[in-house]
Each structure stands twice: as structure tokens, then as C-alpha cells.
Amino acid sequence: MQTNQLLTLFGGAMLLLGLVAFFLGRAKAARVRATGTAMYAQPDQYAWFAVVTTAGPALMVSAIGAFLMLLLGAEIPTLYLLSASLVVAAAGLMVGMSQVRPDFHARQAIERVIRWVLVGAALISIFTTFGILFSIVFEALRFFQMHSFWDFITGTVWNPGASFLAAAGRGDEAGSAALFGSVPLFAGTFMITAIAMLVAIPVGLLSAIYMAEFAPSRVRTLAKPTLEVLAGIPTVVYGFFAAITVAPIIVNVAGFFGLDASFNNAVAPGMVMGIMIIPFISSLSDDVINSVPDSMRQGSLALGMTKGETIRDVVIPAALPGIISASLLAVSRALGETMIVVMAAGMRPNLTANPLEDMTTVTVRIVAALTGDLEFESAETLSAFALGLVLFAITLSLNLVSVIMIRRFREKYRVNNL
Amino acid sequence: MPRHESYPPEPGQPVTRNREANHELSIRIRDLSLWYGETQALDKLNIDIYQKNVTALIGPSGCGKSTFLRCLNRMNDLIPSVRIEGLVEMDGRDVNAAKMDEVALRRRVGMVFQKPNPFPKSIFENVAYAPRMHDLVSRKAEQDELVEHALREAGLWNEVKDKLQQPGTSLSGGQQQRLCIARAIAVQPDVILMDEPTSALDPISTATIEDLMDKLKQQFTIITVTHNMQQAARVADYTAFFHLGEIIEYNDTKTMFANPATKKAEDYITGRYG
Amino acid sequence: MSHSFDDISAQLKKRHRQSSRLKWISMGALGLAGLFLVLFFADMLSKGLPAFQQAQIQVQIDYNEDAQRMGRAALDPEVSRLVSRTFERLIPVRMRDNPELLGTTETRWVLADSEVDQYLKGHRHTLSESQQATVDALVEQDRAELKFNTTFFASGDSKMPEAAGILAAALGTVMTMLVTLSIAFPVGVMTALYLEEFAPDNRLTQLIEININNLAAIPSILFGLLGLAIFINFFGVPRSSPLVGGMTLALMTLPVIIIATRTALRSVPDSIRHAAFGVGCSRWQVVRDHVLPLAMPGIMTGSIIGLAQAMGETAPLIIVGMVAFIPDIGVSFTNAATVLPAQVFTWAGEPDQAFVEKTAGGILVLLAILIFLNATAVMLRRKFERRW
Known about the structure:
The structure holds three protein chains of three kinds.
Chain A: H1 3-34, H2 43-72, H3 78-98, H4 106-146, H5 149-154, E1 158-159, H6 163-167, E2 179-180, H7 183-214, H8 217-232, H9 235-256, H10 267-291, H11 294-301, H12 307-336, H13 339-344, H14 362-371, H15 379-413
Helix pairs in contact in A: 1-2, 1-3, 2-3, 2-4, 4-15, 7-10, 7-12, 8-10, 9-10, 10-12, 11-12, 12-15, 14-15
Chain B: E1 25-36, E2 39-50, E3 54-58, H1 65-72, E4 82-90, E5 93-94, H2 102-108, E6 109-112, H3 123-133, H4 140-153, H5 157-160, H6 173-186, E7 191-195, H7 203-216, E8 221-225, H8 229-235, E9 238-243, E10 246-252, H9 253-258, H10 263-269
Chain C: H1 5-48, E1 53-62, H2 77-80, H3 85-97, E2 105-111, H4 114-120, H5 129-140, E3 144-148, H6 150-154, H7 167-198, H8 203-217, H9 220-232, H10 242-266, H11 270-278, H12 283-311, H13 315-319, H14 340-348, H15 354-384
Antiparallel strand pairs in C: 1-2, 1-3
Helix pairs in contact in C: 1-15, 7-10, 7-12, 7-14, 8-10, 9-10, 10-12, 11-12, 12-15, 14-15
């Protein structure tokens, strides 16, 4: 029999056993109660308890079996495993039924189970983080066995071209050895991020100042969600916009000033990324500025300060931790942004300070390394994980610093809505 | 009902004169009414405030004392739904006139708030910031001198002279409030409004601030809102009793507490309601 | 020492100017951001709307002997170059399936080649002078025109722009989102329930909270690396399938749903809980019968927003291989599939000029769905918003 059919059969049998457990449990409990005996729980609760004892251990057995097969490579025939689970389920049903007694706290037992299920769900987010960390670290270590960490961090030439030959056991045929110096990739990433921030921070912060301090409330209630539309547009759409619309404009404008710009220049993806990030900064800054206590503003106005001076010298300094925190989050966002740069930035690792040249980024190389028809074991494929590891480390530290700063701000002004 | 022969005197004038007080006019208020949207909060107030005195505003909560205080430096402008009628006159000018620059007004009419609100800056900057913006000081030495002077006036200098660069928020509540007073006097206003300046403070800090008010009235006109009648009796030259948006009685403080002219004021002072 | 109002006002002039300058500059910044938005949508509409129309030509099909081998033989040689090759390829197939067609003729509207389409729309094209004249003549005779592009909505991907459509990708998106929601919604709600209603305030709880905030800010491409290394390489989930894509996106959407659910749970006032405890409910009964129903609108809103976010995501899906070329319409969780944003990405990479408008057309469809979802979320929030 096919595994799929087996699984369907198993699922059906489990469902059936569960239903049997439910109705038998309820019937028995109802019978006990009909005799006038006081019970600790409702018949339905006994029924649910029977279902839990039937399905819980059985599913546990099959899950453990599946893990043994995957992790240790143990050869357990699926048929045996599923039959064993069904046997456990039947045994569980018996136990569940025997517990339908007046002095048994079925409700408490169920709630304990529910609690553990909720804990399990909460742990999934932890597993996800560790999953990301381990999957990246594990593969990155394999990469660093092939190429030195030091060369990766300090090398200025990224030329993985020949690595697939080495993976195919023909390394000696390659004209030149593959080089994995990540400096040009990070330089490109930081260049594009810097351009994005040059657009996003002034526009986002000033918009937030206008919305929080000057705008009539009608404008504010309209402007905030409108700006957030910018953050809801898929990045692939921004990538298309940057590549098809903005890049040619940049080339033309540069040409007008007698400058030579590549169609894959860094300005177009940087600018468009900046536009995308505006609402991250404006929205959070607006919240932060709004939570600066009004007494600060009044204190300043009562000294004969103009509104502008009050904002510049009192409100913004007070909101600064929150604004910095928002900007750090935005930087982290820009560093990890993928689609815009994949579509609009170059593929060529290029160590240059001229934003009109084409340059590539970390995320572009990750995508390039993992979408080709390369062997997974090749150094180029694995290099994606090494790049991912560095990206993870940078964004994680930015996020943590940002969280700590916003927490400080919150404690200082005792605001809870941030 | 008025029991005093001479009540009401001329509109805006106190029932009884305080012979020790200065009687140069500082702010003249005539028929001042204020509405929050549809709700009337002040109803045709008349009062003359005299220079270099402490004038206390007392009355049950919600009677309009703070609202009235905020009319004097137009802090009510910050609330969109507010509508004001009547005259608030200072230095021969109508404070509410369209031509009056409210920022200029606030420079001359400073304010100290219920809760201390030092800026998120150093102690020094808290005091030096406003005078610098107002071009009251130009050189660094002048600035240092002014900060020291203001902090001395506020009785804070000895406590903070060694930590001027620390944030203003690091001080205790009472010290913060004196820092706010120093900040207000550093811009050399004519009038200082105090909106229940001691209500968030402990008794010792309160006493310090009361002494300070007594000292500051040599130079400034002080108008203070207070819930604490003993405080009014201790510090004020004149006291105005507010009730439901009206000034019921404006009187020499000693007379007000010993022999009030109106029944309502007497009931309030003797604690029959409040 | 006292300054008159006039002295002060004179000094204030400059400062007032600075103050109003800040006002205008900040207003300008907001306006600029709004302008970006308007320009962006105008650009997408102008590029994408033409994709909803496609040139068709009325041709006479002559089912002769030669056409059994080469479809082009059935057409007038003058127009045969103007007709889509997808149609020409179909003629021999049709004739094999229906032998009685041999010897008959038929007049019908067929898809034109994409170059004709581009020519009629006034875009860049590669038609020769004589071909242009032919097309002009056909237009004169009402035998060539732009019609509503049903192909675009009813077919899968194609290497020929005139035959390419978004249906396969749309179905892929539906399948992927089903997987995403069926994982992220229950797990997210349960996590939030645990954290808000059950969890003791200990180290583990704090760790989970910090971790969730951090997950929300991790670059999406790293979730793709997780999907590749763990789901595909370790668990053996089929590459490029909606299953692996949906699972990867589920992990990404999880923090959004958790955070929204926690906010919704927190906005249910404690008095409700106390009242329920007061009538003898257990903690779980309080949550299930009282707190959860009240928080449901907020949870739904958050989930829809999370879903919209996941629907627009591309980077992690590229890593798990969901950029496959899918010409056939199929519904399966385990076969290779593509999704709308990935389809947009694929088309954006096509060198053919005609694909630019297909890309923009796909973008418009994607944006319309996202706007619809977000508008639903906003309506839901408005309708059920409750102040306690």
C-alpha cells in the first residue's frame, strides 16, 4: 500500500476511535449521573477526556516514530508504526473509559492538557528562531570548512565562478580558484541602505512631526493609514517600479549632468527602498512624539518659545530614543530587503563609492546562489548561508538595541501603547 | 448673599484693601467669559491683579481657577474648542487681541505647572535654554551668571551647583519644581502663574516653595491656584474665591479668612463644602 | 528689566519665521510621501491597464491537407505572421481530434501575436512596414481590434506574452495561503492565549516575548533559508510546492498574528474575566466562552493583515523554489506551483517588451486583492470596534 493511503486510513481510524471515545465516555458519564451520584465534572468533559487519552498517546507514538525515522534513520515500516499507534489508541480508550468515575476531575485533567498544548504552540516561535539559527549556522560552518572565515570577512573579491567545478571534483581544471571575499557585497548593501535612509529618515520624521504637531485631526486620521499603504505594497512590486520606472529616470537625470549611470545603479533601488520604509519611520515616530507628555510642550510654550522651537528643542529630544529605535528597525529592514535589490540592483560585486555604478548586495547573492541549478554541496550554495549568518547577526543586534531603546523610552514616560 | 456693606465694591476691586500690599495695576480683567464648546466655564469675571503681590485663587475643583489662570498667558489657545470673550488687559494692551503675539505674552507671563515638568536636558540647560533663545544673554559668562542667579533665586543653587550637567529629571520632586521656577524667572517675566505648584509635593518641599513665593513677590507678580486654604492664608496678599465659573469674592487674604464678605466663601472656608 | 511687548515682538519675528518654516517643510515631507504614492499608482495603472486588453484578429481558417502538419498553412500567408503561434499550433491538434474538419473553412476571432498587440497599443514593437500596413488595413475592416483579455485571467504562464495568464499563479497563491493560515492562525492564537491568559511571568515567558518581537523583524529571506534547510533538505517536503511555501510563510506570519491577538485579548477588560470567574468558570472556560469571542474581531483583523503580508511576500518563496514555470492549471499541495508575486517576478525578468505590461497587469491584480483584504480588515475593525 502507498504511504498516502496508509496515512488516510490511519487518520480515518483515529477519527473513528475519537468519536467512539467521545460518545462512549459521554454515555457512561450520563449513566452514572442518572443514578443520582454527584460527579466532579460534566458528561461532556468526561467525553473530551476520553478523546484526549485515546488520541494523545497514539499521536505521540507516531510522531516519535516519524522523528526516529528522520533523525536516526531507523527503518521502521510505516505500517507497523501506524498499527502500533492504533493499538496505543485502543488502550488509551480503555484507560479513558475507566476514568469516567464520579471522583475523577475530568475538567481539571482536560485543562491541564489544554495548557500544555498552548505551551507547545508558544514554543513553536522559539523553535523557529532556533531553526533559523541552526539551519544557517550548520550550513555556514560547512562553508567555513572550505573557505577561511577571515578571507570571507576581509576579502575584497567575490568570484564564486569556479566553485561548482571544485564541487564536481574537477577543481584542478578551473582557471582560477573561487574567491569568497564578502566586503564588496556588504559595501553594496550598506550603500543602498544608506541611500534608502537618506530618503526615509528625513521624509518619515518630518511627516511624523507634521502629523503629530501641526496637522488638524482630520488630516492626521487620513494621512496615517494612507502612508501605511506604502508599507503594504509587496516588495516585488517596488522592485519592478525601481527597475522599470525609476532606474531609467536616474540614468537620464545623471546623463543630463554629464554623468554616466548604469541601469542597475544603486540609487534607484535605494530610493525606492527609502519610499517603502517611510511609513516604518513615520508611524513609529508619530506614536513616540504623541506620547511625549503634553506638560513638556506647555512648559516650553509658557517660557515664550515658539511652536517650532518647542518641537525642535524639547519634543524631538524627548522623543529621540524612540525615533532612533524606529530608524534602527528601518535600517535592519533595509539591510535584509531582497526583492527590490534582486530586481533593480546589479549582480556584479563591485567595490565602489559611486552610487551611479551597478553594485550587488548580500541578499542578491543569497538568491543568486540558491536559485541556480547548483549542487547543494557546492561552496557557492553554502556561501549563501554564510552570508545569511552575517545578515542574521547584524539585524538581530539592530533589533535588540532598538527594543531596548524603546523600552527605556516607555519606562521614562510610562506609556503603554508602544 | 452679601453681608458686607461695601460689597460689591467697584467691579474687579477687592472688598477690603490690604494696606501692606502694592497697588499698581498689573492685569485688568473685565467681563471675561470662556466656553469649552457649548459649556461655559467662566462667566463675566472682573478682577484687578496688582503688581508684586501674591494673589491666590481658591475654590472647589472644577470652578474654573485653572482655566482662568490659563487665560492670562493664553495657554487655552492650545485647546481647539475654546472661545473667549471679554478683556484681559496688561500694559495697556488687550491680551486676546488678534495683534497680540501670544509667544511675546508668554515671555512676560511665565507659568509653573502642577506637576514639575523639567525638560529632558541638563539642569544648566533647563535654565539657560529660554534666555538664550530670547537673546537675554549673549556670552557664555553672562549665561553662567544668569543660570546661577536664577537657581539662587529659586533656592536651588546650593543643592545643584556641583551637578549642573546632570539631567533635570534626576532631581527630587521638590527640587524639580524649584528648577521649573528657576526656569521661569530666568526669562525675567513680569508675572508668574502657578497652577497648584505644591499639590504633587511633600510637606517639606511645599514649605520651601511657599517661602520662595514670599521672596519672589519682591520682583514678580505671582498668581497662584491652590486647593490648600492654609497655603493661601500663609502666602497670599489677596485671595479670590471662585465658584462655578464666577468670582464670588475678591478680598484681602486676612479679611477673607477671618471675616468673609459672602456666605458662600464662608461656607467654603469653614469646610462646609469643597 | 521688564521688556515691552513691542521689543519682544520685534525679536520674535525671525523666530516665528523659523517656526512656520518647520511647519511648511514638514507638511511638504508628508506631501512628498503622498506624491510618491500617487505617482506609483499612476505609473502602475498606466503600465498595467493595457494588459487587460489584448489584440485579436478575425481570420479565415482553411482546414486543408497541409494544415494537418503545419497549422500556419490554414491561414492566409499575409495574416499568418500576425496570429499568435499558440493558436497556429492548436490547428493540427484540432484537426486530429475532429477529422471531419478537413476541407471546411471557418471565420473566427483569434489571438493576435504580441507584436500586433503592442503595435495597436502604440508601444514599442518589431513589426515591419508591410506588416503594419496589413494590421492597419485589418483595423479599417474591423477585423483587428483590442478586446477584453480573458486569456490573462484564465490561463497559466506561457513563454508567449499574448498567451500568458495569472490563473495558475492565483491558484498557487490560494493553496499556499490555505497552508499558511491553517498553521499560523491556530498556532498564533494559541501562543497569544498562553502568553496573555495563562503564562506565569517567568524567564521562559519573557524569552518567548522577546523572541516573538525579534522574529517579526528578521529579514524574510532568512525564513527562506530555514525552509530550504529544514523543510526541504531535512524533512523532505517537496520543493516548489505550496506545502513548503505555505509552511515557510506561516512561520513568518506567526508573529503578526500573535501580536495582533495579544492586543485584542488585552483590550478585553478584566471586569469581564472577573465576572466570569465569579460565576464559577474555570480559567479555560473564561477564555473560551467570554474572552475569545470578544477578542475575535481583533484577531480576525490581525490575521487578515498578516495574510495580506504573506500574500505579497516573494523572497523566501524564491529560496524554496516557488518561481517555477507553471503553464498548467492545477490544484495540489505537493506539486510544483507558483504564486502571484513570484509570477510577477518571473515576468519582470522576461526580456520581451510585451511582458512589461503583463507584469504590471499582474501587479494590479495583486494590489487589488491586497487592497481588498486590507479594506476588509479596516471595515471589520470599524464595525466591531468597542470602547470599554
